[in-house]
Structures are given as C-alpha cells and as structure tokens.
Automatic annotation (TrEMBL):
Taxonomic source organism: Streptomyces durmitorensis
Record key words, sorted: Signal
Protein name: PQQ-dependent sugar dehydrogenase
Record bears the keyword Transcription: no
Keyword Electron transport: no
Coiled coil residues, start to end: none
Entries under InterPro entries matching the protein: 6-blade_b-propeller_TolB-like, Glc/Sorbosone_DH, Quinoprot_gluc/sorb_DH_b-prop
Ranges where the Glucose/Sorbosone dehydrogenase domain occurs: 52-366
Signal sequence extent: 1-27
Length: 378
C-alpha cells in the first residue's frame, strides 16, 4: 500500500508539473503583446575570444579579447587592437581581460583584468578624441585572488555616475573562506566607487556600509558567488546581476533604481532560493528574481541587459540573458522586479560569455569561440 501511495503521489506530482508546463506554454501563445518576439542573430564580426564589450564614442562598440587586447567595432568592421596588455595577463583558469567600461562622457576608459599574479585589477586611461592615452594609465583598485576561478571582473558605470565592480567569492568551490557573507572582504561583492573623486578613488558618502567599522566601505551589495555579468536597465536604472551557481541553481538578482544598497543575495548560505550545504537563510536575504536548475538550460548563467533598442519593439523592457554552457538566448518579462514570464528566443549564440549594449540600445552577443552577433528582428 505504501508503495502504491508513493506512486500515486509521484503521478500526481508529474501531472502537476505537466499542467504547470502547459500553463507556461500557453503564457507564450500569440496573445499580443505577450508574444515571443521573433529575433535573429546577425554575425557582425569575428574576434579572438571576445570576453566583454562596451559602447564607445561615436556609435562604436569596443570589444575586449580575453588574452588582453581591445578592438573597436565601427562601420568599417573590427579594427586592429587599440590596447594590448597581453604581457600583463594570462588566460589560465577563468583569468584574462574580463571587463571594460567608459564613463558617461567617454572621458575615461577602464579595464578589468587579472594580472600575472592573478590579482583582480581595475586600471583607468584618459580618452581624448575617442582614443586611449596610454601615458595616463593608473591603477584604481586591486584585489588579490586566492584561487584562479570566480574572479567576477565585470565593470559598469551606474546611472549615478559611480563605477560598479563585480568580484567573485575568491574561487575554489563552495566558498571555503566564507567570503560571500563576510563584509570585511571585497570578495563575493558588488563594489561602488568614485574613481574621479580621489586617488586612487573615493568612496561615495552614501555607500551602505560607510558607518560600519567592520565592513569594507566599497561594498554596495554582497552574498554573491560569481557575479560574472551585471547591468543597469537603461530605461529604469534597475540593477540586474547574473550570479553563477555552484552546482544546482543559476540565478538572476535584482535591485530597484532607488535602492540604498546593502542587499544580501545569500551566497554561500543560499544557492538561489535553496539553503546551500545546510546553510541558514539570512534574515535579510534578497532572493533571486529568477533561477533555473541544470536539467537542460545550462550550467553557468551569463547576465545580459534589459532591451531598450528600437529595432525589436516586442522585446522592449525584457531582460535578455543566456548561459555559457547552453547558449540559448532567453528573455524575462519583468514588472517592478517581478518576473512575469520567461521565454526562449529561439536562437543560440554558442558559448555565450557576455552581452554588449550598443549606444542605441542594440544588443550584441559575444561567443568566446569568436563570433560577435547582433540581436536583430527576424
Ligand atoms: Ca543568491
């Protein structure tokens, strides 16, 4: 009897899952405006292991190549390197040139990379007439790394004009040093600094932990494992973070544009919505707005952007992201920080390592294998 009861329970569960799946499928039926927009990936160029990108001056798109070069994509195609730090970085583990960013006026250019010791490093260059001035290079921030993986490395300017820097938990696996919840280290954090306000930088006065002597003043948010890619919604200013999971749950984290910072995204007490290895959910845990397991959708989330381009009206306001292991381009419909629907856009970008938002809101997909795609209407 016991066995039959269990079987019934399993069958009931399967039916429930099936009906949920049907509900999810119907949610994407063509009842405009909820229709899944038809998109295509247009290959615009090939780069050498493109790892990151940023909108540059004059409608250009700057592409970082993982081994340490930066090249500019314009109407003529992809140019020769305008910056070369290949002798200053390595590509072992998850290392290399991992992020690039401009400030709002394109007056300064920033690179984020691991140096020859594996130390996460953010350097600044002045930019004049759209060109990097190598003689102005200076190091803004460094963070030693105990292991070669989980370096984070993404850098972006927020709508507030401050530089945000994502750092992973230091690596290995399972956060062996407990860095995610430790406010006395920059590892496992999203930082917020003002590189123009001091040398090497200033701390914004309203950073959430400036009055806490036990916490690093640079911290904006914590409880992150490997926040590989994050972005700000160009329409709302909301923050979205793709935080790579340990072995079970990939997640997207969110904060509203009027956040005062200090969000605890849970790692390594939590992996997604689930206690990690017997962890206790922190009282202030901010759960992900979206998570997925590894039963087919991938194994390493690649955070993207909320689409604010004009070419694909049906995609406007949706968060576009992917997964390094899977490559399918996906989109989340969101309303005030709540995901109201998830869809598969039906195109695959290969080993998707990063997205780039061009100056007019158009989105590019970087395949670490070399392809640079633009998301276009089908
Ligand atoms: Ca989390």
């Amino acid at each position: 009897m016991k066995v039959r009861t269990r079987s019934s329970a399993i069958i009931a569960t399967i039916c429930l899952v099936a009906s949920l799946a049907l509900t999810a499928a119907f949610a994407d039926e063509p009842t405009a405006p909820r229709q899944v927009p038809k998109v295509a990936l247009t290959k615009v160029t090939t780069a050498a292991n493109p790892s990151a990108g940023a909108a540059g001056p004059g409608g250009t798109v700057w592409i970082a190549e993982r081994a340490g070069t930066v090249r500019v994509l314009d109407g003529q195609g992809l140019g020769k390197p305008v910056l070369d730090i290949t002798k200053e970085t390595t590509t072992d583990g998850e290392r290399g040139l991992l992020g690039i960013a401009f400030d709002k006026k394109f007056a300064h250019f920033y690179i984020s990379y691991t140096n020859l010791e594996g130390t996460s490093t953010v350097d600044e260059f002045a930019v004049r007439h759209g060109k990097i001035r190598p003689d102005t290079r200076r190091t803004v921030l460094t963070q030693t790394q105990p292991y070669p993986n989980h370096n984070g490395g993404d850098i972006k300017f927020g709508p507030d004009g401050y530089l945000y820097i994502a750092l992973g938990d230091g690596g290995s696996g399972g956060d062996p040093h407990g860095n995610g919840q430790n406010l006395d280290t920059l590892l496992g954090k999203l930082l917020r600094i003002d590189p123009a306000g001091g040398k090497p930088y200033a701390i914004p006065k309203d950073n959430p932990f400036v009055d806490d002597p036990k916490a690093k003043d640079e911290i904006w948010a914590y409880g992150l494992r490997n926040p590989w890619r994050f972005s700000f919604d160009a329409g709302t200013g909301d923050l979205l973070i793709g935080d790579v999971g340990q072995s079970a749950w990939e997640e997207i984290d969110w904060a509203p544009s009027d956040s005062e910072g200090g969000e605890n995204y849970g790692w390594s007490q939590m992996e997604g919505n689930h206690p990690f290895r017997g962890g206790t959910e922190p009282a202030n845990h901010v759960p992900p707005v979206h998570e997925y397991d590894r039963t087919g959708l991938g194994c390493s989330v690649t955070g993207g952007y909320v689409y604010r381009g004009k070419a694909i009206p049906g995609l406007k306001g949706q968060y576009v992201f992917s997964d390094y292991c899977d490559g399918t381009i996906r989109a989340l419909r969101m309303e005030n920080g709540k995901v109201t629907g998830a869809s598969d856009l039906g195109v695959n970008g290969g080993e998707v390592i990063s997205f780039v938002q061009g100056g007019k809101g158009e989105l590019y997909v970087l395949d670490i294998g070399g392809s640079v795609f633009r998301i276009d209407p089908a």
